[in-house]
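Table 4 source record.
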Amino acid sequence: MSDERLDPGALTDLSARMRAHVESGAVPGLAMLVAAGADVHVETVGRLALDADVALEHDAIFRIASLTKPITAAAAMLLVDDGVLALDEPVDSLLPELADRRVLRSLDAALDDTVPAHRAITVDDLLTCRLGLGCIMAPPGTYPIQKAEEELELRTFGPPWPPPSFSVDEWISRLGTLPLVHQPGEGWRYNTGIQVLGVLVERAAKMPFGDFLRRRLFQPLGMIDTTFVMDASRRGRFTTAYAPDPSSGVLSVLDPAHGSWWDDAVLANGAGWLLSTIDDFYAFVSMLVNGGAARGERVLSKAAVARMTMDHLHGSQHDDVRLFVGPGSSWGYGMAVPETGGHGGGIRGGYGWDGGMGTTWRTDPATGVTAMLFTQRAMTSPEPPATFTDFYDAVDTATRGAS
């Protein structure tokens, strides 16, 4: 494999495009990475915060939000490799709160207007977001189950912040009081399955979820700054998070670096609560690109990586996922993947995911080309923001001809 696969001129154009977004005030700063084989380009632009004259470096710490999901999926697959979990097994023994499910007769039904579930929820249902609960594409409070989820403070049908103030066991206990929206395995709904998966991993591993990730993933991969909780030793590298005004686009602080939601978060949310750096996350992605191997050791089996990065949806489930993943893509385990039989291809049609706090990653499975962009600007819709679109346009040029 050649080490000279990134076009230097195109990388200069990439840098200019991304700098323009910082100079316009669209984002305070950003970190980006493009890799083709052993040729890896990493660059940072801007500041940690709008009101701080501190340059954003490659070790800046971002809220990676839903980029947590593929990490949680990998954690579950570690336990599958170990023989502790099986993909087709019901979750009832480890998550009795979700046993004997009831299913709403219709989305707008009252919470007691239900039928029995046809079968139990499985590990695979969680990995693929087909357990029967998740995001409902309607204004908050439109349906009775949305109102109930909000009253329970579960933060799982929508943005996960501010975080719940109760424990993982309390969270799953409260979730267990809700009926399912559809039968297990029949439809795709974003987010909740992966959050439940984190609870399953914690119970199967018999240790706190964060501890399991650190021992089995982060330490073997050298991910020294990936964590669920901010601490004093990392404080000076923590970015401030912003959200744009829906009409003007002007940025306001969503979560500061000091007094942050991540200072003492109680709930280790496997769907979207990790902090990380561009270097750390690339270590995780490189392991996937290398078929589960990293630093001379095998972390995941090749079979596990193959299952994570393949299309698991069928029929109308592809319609369910389309708004979130775009044309030519589907859903694997914890991330978007190329749709079976699709014609997407290229970096945008590869596997990877986006984080609602302004992060994105894709890998083209045909070439192994990887691209990542970390920003501090929260997304306001499933549509990719201009920074993401511009980034991937430039990456396509910089990596054209990679093979």
